[in-house]
Specification:
The complex is a heterodimer. Chain A is an all-beta fold. Helix content of chain A is 0%, strand content 50%. The N and C termini of chain A lie far apart (37 Å). In chain B, the strands form two sheets. In chain B, strands 2, 4, 5, 9, 10 and 11 form a six-stranded mixed beta sheet that branches. Chain B has a five-stranded antiparallel beta sheet with strand order 1-3-8-7-6, with no helix packed on it. Classes of the chains: A mainly beta, B mainly beta.
Chain lengths: 113, 114
Amino acid sequence: EAGVTQFPSHSVIEKGQTVTLRCDPISGHDNLYWYRRVMGKEIKFLLHFVKESKQDESGMPNNRFLAERTGGTYSTLKVQPAELEDSGVYFCASSQEQGLPQHFGDGTRLSIL
Amino acid sequence: QQQVKQSPQSLIVQKGGISIINCAYENTAFDYFPWYQQFPGKGPALLIAIRPDVSEKKEGRFTISFNKSAKQFSLHIMDSQPGDSATYFCAASSGYNQGGKLIFGQGTELSVKP
């Protein structure tokens, strides 16, 4: 069984540019979560999809971040325009049901210059 | 406001020793407490988890101790090995009713010296 796949693994862009991160969850997992870890701090929740619907987006920092999950399969997280404080590692996780163990991808390391 | 506090930030242990990482939480609605292990360049991987109806759970060399009244839980790694060197995160969740989102501690970098 393939795990959670994220790409790109690394992205370096300049402030003001746009970046799109992609997450492919484990097949059959309806629940998809995005998290972010800023250097040296805790991993923080961003949002939660159940199939194609946003269940909880309370962790999204601001309206420069847009997450989508069209068709309830893969998800994208777009940052537009990127700011310096957006640098960090963005993780995606999926689970079969809410409350069951979440499986994480290897993350996308985003650097804003 | 950090809902899950983890300590220490870093830990050095000799091979064969016991590694102990502690976490404290505030929200009494939390009902699921997992520990994740992360190696450099990889994502967090679930190591072991506990629910508040038990005080201890053991899987191999890894044990979670849970103190509901003190709102604390800890990870013990017995007979620590160099291969255990990684970053460890505790987390808490309100489970199904809150969508299962995880609230993480700040992480502990464990180094096991040979």
